[in-house]
Amino acid sequence: MSPAAATTSKGAATRDLILDRAYAIACRNGVEGLSIGELALAAGMSKSGVFAHFGSREALQLAVIEQGARRFGEKVLIRSLKQARGMPRLRAIVQYWFDWVRDNRQGCLIMGAVSEYDSRPGPLRDAVVEAMRHWREATARAVTLAIEAGDLRKDTDAAQIAFEIFGIALALHQDSRLFEARRARAQAEKAIDRLFNSHST
Amino acid sequence: MSPAAATTSKGAATRDLILDRAYAIACRNGVEGLSIGELALAAGMSKSGVFAHFGSREALQLAVIEQGARRFGEKVLIRSLKQARGMPRLRAIVQYWFDWVRDNRQGCLIMGAVSEYDSRPGPLRDAVVEAMRHWREATARAVTLAIEAGDLRKDTDAAQIAFEIFGIALALHQDSRLFEARRARAQAEKAIDRLFNSHST
DNA sequence: CGCACAATAGCACGACCGTTCGTTTTATTT
DNA sequence: AAATAAAACGAACGGTCGTGCTATTGTGCG
Questions:
Q1: Contact yes or no for A116/A107 (Cβ under 8 A)
Q2: Does residue A46 approach strand D to less than 7 Å at its CB?
Q3: Most CB contacts within 10 A, which of A42, B81, B177, B194?
Q4: Residues 6 or more apart in contact with residue B142 via CB below 8 angstroms
């Protein structure tokens, strides 16, 4: 009866399949450009069959945004935890992030969602803000650990460094798609090196 | 007869009015979220009346993108030309850009268009790429002039500095809308200062 | 096996989309 | 003022949108 929850194992499986296709579509067309009709076609189902899994388009979009945040979190943040605290882990975050930009050539879902919802109040915007906040905090925490490990100077402002890392990543993201990806990556690496060097002990 | 060009003075005037409203809508909803029906309502005209001025939705979108590029160019790039070559002009570009981000609180049309079209070939993408390229080159040129004026070191890579300025501006743009605009601006200013200082003579 | 219910399909709806067409109003020129 | 061209309107088209509702298919548990 409840429309938004899959109870059987088959239901959960198709829901995962739908979300997988939805993620791919939303990467290309944006979360706002994701339609149930196109999604149903990609999943090999009927519109109403897809619809029943979420109950509303907005619930579907929310699930897709969370899916995007989860994928980035796994590929970049969680993966970096295997590296030792301090500069190794901080460097890992940056490298994995750069690799993420390279490997998702048709666009990062969350990055796209930011400019879709940044000035549009509602639960979708809230989800995007929450994802970015978590993401930023994880980066700042890695910087703080690098300071505590003695890799960066004690007077370093962790939030400031995180802000600048995001800026470099955003520029890389944009340049990779608009101009030459190779050159963009080289410039991003150079910018990161300058940033870390100017604060290292 | 020709649908895309206004020949009388009245025609040109309404076309300007339409583009003005279209610009406002596209800033909020994105260029892809601009519909002729909503635009007609905002302009106080009929759908077909609006449509006749452009001949197709894509032509309208193209005109809106060019409008967005023109407005930014005037408010930031052209305005900075009044400042003396070298650091004064470079600083002016950055400050005017930051002001632009502050004053267009519901979103910058071009910035939004980038993530809408960066992986969607076509004339709209071409227009966005061209606008960003022009914009980037103007910034790099200002950096070069600052080098020639002796304000920045001779071994400074102008393209690299322009890349990093864009990164800081992008981070400011994003943070201003997702988090606290005040803090974002302070962080952006600090990042710019560090960038310029580390290359100044 | 058979029962209960989840999962999916099919169909229809009202709304809005971009676009076309013929007509009418308005502006410019002769 | 008459003639001509531009501009704007209003209605309609075929399509797609998200969303209900009802029926049918399939799964999983007792």
A1: no
A2: no
A3: B177
A4: B80, B89, B90, B93
| Cβ of A73 less than 7 A from strand C | no
Which residues 99-138 in chain A show a CB within 8 A of chain B?
Answer: 105-107, 111-112, 114-116, 118-120, 128-129, 132-133
Q: Does any domain span residue B110?
A: yes
How far from B45 is each of B39, B64, B193, CA to CA, in Å? 9, 18, 49
Q: Mind listing the pLDDT tens digit for each residue in A110-158?
A: 999 999 999 999 999 999 999 999 999 999 999 999 999 999 999 999 9
Does residue B3 form part of some domain? no
Nucleotide nearest residue A2, measured CA to C1':
C6
Whether A131 maps to a domain, the answer reads yes
Residue B201 has a CB neighbour count (10 Å cut-off) of 10
- B125-163 per-position pLDDT tens digit: 999 999 999 999 999 999 999 999 999 999 999 999 999
- Counted domains in chain A: 1
Q: What CATH number does residue B179 fall under?
A: 1.10.357.10
B50 CA → D8 C1’, Å: 9
Q: Which domain, by its residues, includes A176?
A: 57-197
Q: Is there a contact between A166 and B171 if contact means CB atoms under 8 Å apart?
A: yes
**pTM for this predicted structure:** 0.94
User: Is position A192 within any domain?
Assistant: yes
